[in-house]
Specification:
Shape: globular
CATH architecture: 3-Layer(aba) Sandwich
CATH class: Alpha Beta
Bound molecules: guanosine-5'-triphosphate, magnesium ion
Number of domains: 1
Low-confidence stretches: 81-122
Keywords: GTP-binding, Magnesium, Metal-binding, Nucleotide-binding
Mean pLDDT: 80
GO molecular function: GTP binding; metal ion binding
Number of strands: 10
Radius of gyration: 16 Å
Helix content: 25-40%
Strand order of the largest sheet: 1-3-4-2-8-9-10
Order of helices and strands: EEHEEEEEHHEHEHEH
Protein name: EngB-type G domain-containing protein
Structural class: alpha/beta
Largest sheet: 7 strands, mixed
Number of helices: 6
Strand content: 15-25%
Length: about 230
Amino acid sequence: SRVKEAEFVKSSARARDCPKDDRPEFAVLGRSNVGKSSLINALIRRKEAALTSKKPGKTQTINHFLVNKSWYLVDLPGYGMYHNDKIIDGIANGEKQSEKYNFALVFIGLFAAASQSARTDWSSFTKGYFLNRDTLVGVLLLVDASIPPQKIDIDCANWLGRNNIGLTYVFTKCDKSKKGKGGRPEENIKEFQETISSLYPEPPPWIMTSSVTGLGRDGLLLHMSQLRNY
Ligand code: GTP
Ligand code: MG
């Protein structure tokens, strides 16, 4: 499961532009700012292969990274962020808020960066990507362990589960710990697990990671190699 080499292959604006290839791939999914691009950089040990930012909405296209010339890691734009219990579009920085949403909106938020006119395309594409990308071996659903469970992540897990898309929970930012309620990663992870335990007959695999300390890196690579050979 070692990474010997990794190369950026391409950025795609739409599903149909993704590489036509038989090699297996893992999609890295999660809220804007959860640490998707950072995780990819940690996995392939490159500082800025996938561009990261403090501001949500950095990644705006589908980015394929080829590892060991044999499998892909796919960096995706993030879906919506919560602020004061309201969903904020990942890129709109508070301009666009909506108290009620459904998964369609999550998907629109997922590709928040697409221009307004392209958004309808994006949302249908995204579902299409997850449902039809034959080479998709699994989804790494990234969940920020440094904050309490967020409804949008639970809804996302729910949708993937209902559609039989194999997923692994990757808890990010496990190096961050604050005093007080909701400040400890272990607590937040436990609460998340309890909330989603009723969604699956068998709980999905999960792993604690930190892109800062490298926690979980080798374990996650091993896990993905097992999924590929399954
Ligand atoms: P979008 O592309 O906007 O959807 O965000 P993203 O999910 O790719 O997040 P990104 O990797 O750009 O990271 C967002 C911020 O979180 C950056 O400031 C990172 O340095 C920080 N970050 C990411 N992973 C970790 C982690 O494991 N620990 C800590 N402490 N910070 C992290
Ligand atoms: Mg990103």
